[in-house]
Each structure stands twice: as C-alpha cells, then as structure tokens.
Amino acid sequence: xxxxxxxxxxxxxxxxxxxxxxxxxxxxxxxxxxISRHVTARRFASSVDDQEIAKFAxxxxxxxxxxxxxxxxxxxxxxxxxYVKDLVTSMMHVDPLHDDPAKPFTGxxxxxxxxxxxxxxxxxxxxxxxxxxxxxxxxxxxMAKVHALEDPTLxxxxxxxxxxxxxxxxxxxxxxxxxALEIIEHVVDPKEFTRVCSQLVKPNGLIFFxxxxxxxxxYLLTIFMAEKxxxxxxxxxxxxxxxxxxxxxxxxxxxxxxxxIHTKGMGFNPxxxxxxxxxxxxxxxxQMNFITGAQKLDTAISVPPAFAAxxxxxxxxxxxPVADVPPLPRVxx
Length: 333
Hints:
Helix content is 30%, strand content 20%. It is of the alpha/beta class. It is globular.
C-alpha cells in the first residue's frame, strides 16, 4: 500500500535538500519537493495543453500505485520497454567496454519526454542508460523524484526536469534515443510535437512513439468500456479526436527527417490483464494501441535497406517474453 503522499513528500523534501547527486560530470542538487494544489507548468511553447497537464496533475500521487489509476500503464510498461530494448540493441552500437547483459544501454543517453511519474524512465535507467525524464507537469516530476529516492542505485543515471521538448531544443540538448510514449495524443499539435522531438535526436539515433489509433473500436474499448463502464482509467483521460493513426504517425516522422522502421500493435487480454506485442501486419493488429520506432536521418549516411520501413529485425518477436525486463518496484508500505 502506498504511503500517504503528503508525509512522504515532507520526508523526501528534507532528504532532497541535503542530497547532492552526481549526474555524469555535473553536480546536481535536488531541490525541495512539493505537490502543488494547482498546476504551475512553465509555458515554453504551444505543444503543452494546460488542460491535459491539469488532468494528470490531479492524479500525481497515483503514479506508483500498481492497482490505482495508472494500473494499465504499469501492466503495459514491460512490453514497451522490451520493444525499445530490442530495437536499440539491434540497431545501435553500445560501448564495448561495458558489455554487461543486464545493462545493454550503458553509454547511451535517453530522453523520456512526457515521463509522468517515471515508470519508463526508471526501467530505462536500470538497463544502464543515462536517462533524462522530462514533463511539463511539475506535480508529476515531484512524484517521480520522490519515488526515485527509494532506489539509491538510480542516482547517477536518472535525472528529472520540469520542462518541455521545446525548451530542451532551445537548451541545445541531444540524445541517442528519444521516447515519447503515451503522450502525443495529449499535445496541442502532434505533427509539430514530432518535429520538435526529432530535433532532440542525434543523427542516426532512434525515436519512439506509442499511442492509440483513431478507430471506432478504439472508442468502444478505450473510452466507452475502459473509462465509462469498467472505470479502468479515470473518465476524461482520453479524447478520441486526438488519437493518431499509424499512417499519420508515419507521415509526421517522415516530415521530421526520420525513417520509420516498423510499427507493432499492443494487444491487451482483459481476462489475464496482460499486454503483448502484435506483429502489426495481421488483421486488427493496429486497430488499438501501437508503438513505432524510427531512425533520425543523417544526410551523409543513408538508412540500411535491412531497416527500411516495415522491415523487422529477427530478434523482435510478436509476443516476446518480458521476464528479463527489470520489474517496477512497489513503494514500501
């Protein structure tokens, strides 16, 4: 059971005020943490939707409750991580001096944009990456920092920032990998958001998006059933008109100088409450949730034919085991 959020934040604030964490070669002092009654996200650019930020801020204390409002994300996370892991390890050269099977991302710098409470960020950091989790919601970042304090091993490889993709571009940031998972359906201009995110990827780096296809079936299952009937997610979490089709996502990536590699569906079994990857070529595979990976083009180097659009590396299976993905720790009672 989760600790009451206010006492936990008071403890974390005292610890954070005195805690100096080494992040790479830079010295980072964690600021005092707080959960505000109202959203105070800074306004850097137009991709931030204030109503969406407020929506998730109200549930900030629920991020790490595996049976709470974000239960579906907790269950989906191992599948998302496995997709990212398989594509990154098959296409990118990691540091040969750090050949640790448990940390295949060692030497890589990864951005988790729209990180929320840090579910994906922590998993990527445990795979060895240097991770920056960024979110426009200050309450989400505060909760992410609180939870990260529970695991001291994350201190050197995980940093959270209350900022936006646009501000990171202005700051001159560049990453080997950018992940924008379950966020594009919550921004103002998805095409522009894709373009901005692509500017944060180094040439030949990888970028990932996951979202929900805009179909009658997705409305029936994700809004009518999941929100209104079964209450698996809070009512109003999604707007069907903001869903993105795989074809639109491919167009956004192509216009942002990124070469789509392949797209896979993510299927949910309501009986077992388990997610799995779908091939993406079968009937109905992309009617609901899907995840896609693309490579940032370098004008001097073309994308190898083996990784052209819809070519799937052999080691990425339609329904891979997820046991080797680091589990999400529960907040101790």
